[in-house]
């Protein structure tokens, strides 16, 4: 199979949100700390009818409905999450109810878990299955989602929630570029969830940002080398010259997005890497100015950071900002965050033609830590209904929901909901009791948890 990639997608938009400006007042922090300092506008909230399984069931059933793909046509389903409702039973097995009712029990794959990286791990599994001798010609599906909640304190405004389902297969309009992938993994305690009874992580926020930044630097250096080597081997077999890989190679650069401001800093960091590599698109004056700097010792230099943000502002506006619409208005979604950024970017131009031939660079980060950088390329497809235009339509439906169909909550109500979630998260038995107006027709929701912790979901 060739041109393996994303054929279709569905995104979940939780129906409740809180304005970050209202949260600033409620938390008694200085005006602008969350909206300017973190760059966030709104935070998505879930009611007690929504848990991680209901989010995943909803996007998966919508993907099947919208694409018309029969459940029998799916041979692999991978799930990425860090929102656990059970230590043994995977979310994948809960999602099997959508397949078994159509007589399909032959679906490979289970859950991948490592903080915000699980969705990327799930995608890599799906790609590798299709590339392997075990592939049986059917589609793969990746579902990823999280309800990201933090204990009261400075991390709480960086919470959020979301889930998405991706149909993966050959002859795709969004292709994973073969061979173009770098990985950096190491053992750190920046963000982790050792208390299995609590939905909240233990987080060292400043350390997590440092770890994110060094993972970014390392992945980018390695990605450029690998992609250049790939280009060289391609150019031996064709007349095309090997490319020098840098930010100008890509139409879009999208990041795992804990909060918008971190992506602006990350973009300027990649720009700094390109300055130190004296890439041809960088003005000579900048290469000269920074010729004595090195990438590692400069990580805590605030003046440098400010200058780099200024120097790269225009490019950031072109290549990353169009990918931040969902994140800015929903918050950190953990595993699907990077993919909401990709989809936000892909819906930022009115027509699909504008993306043909364009490459987009993706950086995935999960604390603990696991990180990868890879790229996709958009293409015009033939003899298939899975086009970029159809993908754009489903993203636009999600944007429409985001803009027009959400209900605003006061910050004190958010606190109340989170307190209730803490209490009910692992309670048996439990019947959700918050107002059901937040549910949309067609959504799957949690109906009950019985005394043996068995969860029942129904379509609303
Ligand atoms: N107006 C404008 N800017 C302001 C204001 C204001 N009134 N007040 C503060 N700021 C700026 C600060 O100067 C700072 O800017 P800087 O980042 O350029 O230095 C920024 O807002 C944030 O303020 P801090 O005081 O640094 O914020 P704090 O330490 O309270 O919290 C943190 C930030 C650590 C990121 C916290 O939200 C957190 O722990 N989040 C969760 C962890 C996280 O998301 N990590 C990222 C990678 S790992 C992952 O995805 C989970």
Automatic annotation (TrEMBL):
The keyword Lipid metabolism applies. InterPro entries: HMG_CoA_synt_C_dom (IPR013746), HMG_CoA_synth_N (IPR013528), HMG_CoA_synthase_euk (IPR010122), Thiolase-like (IPR016039). Residues 174-458 form the Hydroxymethylglutaryl-coenzyme A synthase C-terminal domain. GO terms for biological process: acetyl-CoA metabolic process; farnesyl diphosphate biosynthetic process, mevalonate pathway; sterol biosynthetic process. It is an enzyme of class 2 (transferase). The active site is at residues 82, 116, 256. Pathway: Metabolic intermediate biosynthesis; (R)-mevalonate biosynthesis; (R)-mevalonate from acetyl-CoA: step 2/3. Residues 1-173 form the Hydroxymethylglutaryl-coenzyme A synthase N-terminal domain. It catalyses: acetoacetyl-CoA + acetyl-CoA + H2O = (3S)-3-hydroxy-3-methylglutaryl-CoA + CoA + H(+). One of its GO terms (molecular function) is hydroxymethylglutaryl-CoA synthase activity. CoA binds at residues 154, 208, 261, 265. Pfam families: HMG_CoA_synt_C, HMG_CoA_synt_N. The keyword Transferase applies. It comes from the Eukaryota. Keywords: Lipid biosynthesis, Lipid metabolism, Steroid biosynthesis, Steroid metabolism, Sterol biosynthesis, Sterol metabolism, Transferase. Its EC number is 2.3.3.10. Signal peptide: none annotated. Catalyzes the condensation of acetyl-CoA with acetoacetyl-CoA to form HMG-CoA. Belongs to the thiolase-like superfamily. HMG-CoA synthase family. This is Hydroxymethylglutaryl-CoA synthase. It comes from Adineta ricciae. The lineage of its organism: Eukaryota, Metazoa, Spiralia, Gnathifera, Rotifera.
């Amino acid at each position: 199979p060739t041109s393996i990639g994303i054929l279709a997608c569905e995104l979940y938009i939780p129906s409740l949100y809180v304005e970050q400006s209202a949260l600033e007042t409620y938390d008694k922090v200085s005006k602008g700390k969350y909206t300017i300092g973190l760059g966030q506008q709104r935070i998505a909230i879930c009611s007690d009818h929504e848990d991680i399984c209901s989010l995943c069931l909803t996007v998966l059933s919508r993907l099947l409905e919208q694409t018309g793909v029969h459940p029998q046509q799916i041979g692999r389903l991978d799930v990425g999450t860090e929102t656990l409702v059970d230590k043994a039973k995977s979310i994948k097995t809960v999602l099997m109810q959508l397949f078994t009712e159509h007589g399909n029990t032959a679906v490979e794959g289970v859950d991948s878990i490592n903080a915000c990286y699980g969705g990327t791990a799930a995608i890599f599994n799906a790609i590798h299955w299709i590339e392997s001798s075990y592939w049986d010609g059917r589609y793969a599906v990746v579902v990823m989602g999280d309800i990201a909640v933090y204990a009261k304190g400075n991390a709480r405004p960086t919470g959020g929630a979301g889930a998405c389902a991706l149909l993966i297969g050959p002859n795709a309009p969004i292709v994973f570029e073969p061979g173009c992938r770098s990985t950096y993994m190491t053992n750190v305690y920046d963000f982790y969830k050792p208390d299995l009874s609590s939905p909240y992580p233990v987080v060292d926020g400043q350390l997590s940002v440092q770890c994110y930044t060094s993972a970014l630097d390392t992945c980018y250096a390695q990605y450029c080398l690998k992609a250049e080597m790939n280009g060289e081997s391609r150019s031996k077999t064709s007349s095309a010259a090997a490319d020098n890989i840098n930010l100008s190679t890509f139409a879009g650069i999208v990041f795992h997005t804990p909060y918008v401001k971190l992506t602006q800093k990350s973009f300027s960091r990649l720009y700094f890497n390109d300055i130190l590599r004296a890439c041809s698109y960088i003005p000579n004056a900048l290469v000269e100015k920074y010729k004595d700097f090195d990438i590692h010792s400069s990580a805590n230099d605030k003046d440098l950071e400010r200058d780099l943000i200024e120097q790269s502002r225009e490019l950031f506006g072109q290549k990353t900002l169009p990918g931040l619409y969902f994140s800015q208005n929903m918050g950190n979604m953990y595993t699907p965050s990077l993919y909401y950024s990709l989809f936000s970017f892909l819906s930022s131009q009115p027509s699909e033609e504008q993306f043909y031939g364009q490459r987009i660079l993706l950086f995935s980060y999960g604390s603990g830590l696991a990180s990868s950088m890879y790229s996709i390329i958009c293409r015009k497809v033939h003899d298939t209904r899975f086009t970029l235009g159809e993908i754009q339509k489903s993203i636009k439906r999600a944007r429409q929901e985001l803009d027009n169909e959400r209900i605003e909550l006061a910050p004190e109500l958010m606190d109340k909901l989170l307190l209730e979630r803490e209490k009910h998260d692992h309670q048996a038995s439990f019947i959700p009791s918050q107002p059901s107006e937040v549910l949309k027709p067609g959504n799957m929701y949690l109906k009950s948890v019985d005394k043996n912790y068995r969860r029942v979901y129904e379509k609303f």
